[in-house]
């Protein structure tokens, strides 16, 4: 059988496409918000309930989705969740009130909770440790591309037909991707089109706990009991409200604060997401560069990326000091770059610290912490945006990220995954 050179990059491209479509389905609601709110008579606070329904379901399902992925495997597990979110995304078109939208978006959020853990699990299977942050950076790009595509797609759908059409298109595309995933994704040990040289490069370059499935699995309580878990979970808790705000509120922010119409939103709302794409890629390449330049280990290099991103988040935190909408857009672009660079580092840390049998579970638990904060902050925005405005809320997001950088340096130890395994696996609570 003909071997495909560099097959791991084709696999991460497939993962990235899934993330693109997942975030397209997620962000369709934000891009359609001005039209939806007018047609269905939805207030800002009611809109925040819709966003919170998605976030709450996503939050609750994060550890569940991660556990299911570890049980079913990356291929079957991810396909199941993708088909589910595709169906409920299309069903959003049937909603006629904010309550109906909240129910549909909650179902989408529950299914999409598997997206990042699945991408991380696929990256840990298909890439050696030294390339994993690059792989995560690429699939994380998909989140920004999906958010970037949503505004022009929604505007086109509204102009051509209705807002309902945008949700139907997004659902159909996600379903088609799920079928492609089932056909093409295989573990590198089972992929016949992978050359032996590349297979050895991938598996030989992985940490010991990613090379072999020894049947041992840390329990949820063991994971929660590690200092390393909280060193990742707390910074993610502090960082995620920024990304939730960027995804759910930028079109409405432009509409309410600067009076942008639908076409102007389509012209500008995607720009912060373009810079978020750059943040994903740059943030993925920086850790190995920092290792070479400063002689630090893998975990310290990721901490440095998180710190850089947190400092850059000061930009959007100052958005209230300027009156020009174009300056505001520029600061949001800086924020998009900043958040996605630090987000990729935080997500990748789970695969640095935890083994192949628990990486998706651990990532799901840290994701639960992150999305708990995102849910709460969405409700805060809904309650306060019409009274105090958006500017103080952006300032709070910058403070959160700076606190997250402090936490990661003080809580997360610079320990390898192998050292953590020796401390935890094999204790009486260990599952097998």
Automatic annotation (TrEMBL):
One of its GO terms (molecular function) is hexuronate transmembrane transporter activity. PROSITE patterns: MFS. InterPro entries: MFS, MFS_dom, MFS_Na/Anion_cotransporter, MFS_trans_sf. The chain crosses the membrane at residues 48-69, 76-96, 102-122, 134-159, 165-185, 265-286, 326-349, 361-384, 390-412. It is a multi-pass membrane protein. Its main location: membrane. The keyword Transmembrane helix applies. GO terms for cellular component: plasma membrane. Residues 11-416 form the Major facilitator superfamily (MFS) profile domain. It catalyses: aldehydo-D-galacturonate(out) + H(+)(out) = aldehydo-D-galacturonate(in) + H(+)(in). It is found in: Cell inner membrane. Keywords: Cell inner membrane, Cell membrane, Membrane, Signal, Transmembrane, Transmembrane helix, Transport. Belongs to the major facilitator superfamily. Phthalate permease family. PANTHER family: HEXURONATE TRANSPORTER, SOLUTE CARRIER FAMILY 17. This is MFS transporter. The lineage of its organism: Bacteria, Pseudomonadati, Pseudomonadota, Gammaproteobacteria, Enterobacterales.
